[in-house]
Amino acid sequence: MGSGDSTNVPIVINDKSFDLRVIRTGNRHGYARVYNGSVVVSVPSRLVGDEYDEMVEYLCNRIRELVERHPNRFVGDGFSLYGVEQTHPLGSDIRIIRNVGRRAGLRVVGNEIHLSMPEHIDDDIARKMSDSLVARGISRIVNSSLESRVNAINSRYYGFEIRGVRIRLNRGVWGSISANRIISLNLKLLYAPSDVLDYVIAHELAHVRYSGHGVRFWKLVERAVPDHTEKRVWLRENGQLIRPF
Predict the structure, then answer these.
(1) In angstroms, rounded to a whole number, what is the distance separating the alpha carbons of residues 6 and 231?
(2) Is the pLDDT of residue 55 over 90?
(3) β-strand 94-100 against 112-117: which pairing, if any?
(4) What are the residues facing 6 on neighbouring strands?
(5) pLDDT per residue over 167-179, tens digit each?
(6) Could you give the angle at which helices 215-224 and 228-238 cross, rounded to 10 degrees?
(7) Which domains does the chain have, with CATH numbers?
(8) Residue 106: beta bridge partners?
(9) How far is CA 207 from CA 33, 147, 158, 187, in A?
(10) What is the pTM of this model?
């Protein structure tokens, strides 16, 4: 299809032919909807070449699947797939697919997060609910990889008993460890450099032995991360700039 805008290309859904209109926007994610007798696909202007073609094909297939799966909900121009974006926690490739639904909901299929949100809902409430649901979906996909990373650092440098790892959408704390030795890590760390993530993991592991931040605590952190001071500086200067999704 190429990287330019296209109009009046036919697309068939449930044996009915629609015109396909592809437009470009400055948004960071694409969307597809049925509108005025056409399937309208919006693609981020930053995408060109194969990325552009893949996004158009993906959105067309998704809107077709949704309409075919829920024919009773398709009335005139009332069907919309309103957001598709990609996110890369821990270097993975995850698609976030935002749909209009009767209620807020989350479904994880492979490396896809399918998010449903009611159409008529306060923007601030919708944003908070959406962020929480997406964070939960990312956690389901990458938590086993994160646990493996924590266990590898723990096994190599410490050998403590750890009972679990959790991912939290926490804007105030990078990490914590509970009394029953469950480590919680801020979702944003999954988008930080890997050595910064490892520093926070080592930091929380060191708290198994020392609750405070005294000399012996930092010596324990240093065992796994000799340049931990640099990582702390990086988080202080760049942490608030991380935008997961």
Answers:
(1) 47
(2) no
(3) parallel
(4) 22
(5) 988 767 999 999 9
(6) 90
(7) 1-75 (no CATH), 143-241 (3.30.2010.10)
(8) 115
(9) 50, 17, 11, 20
(10) 0.68
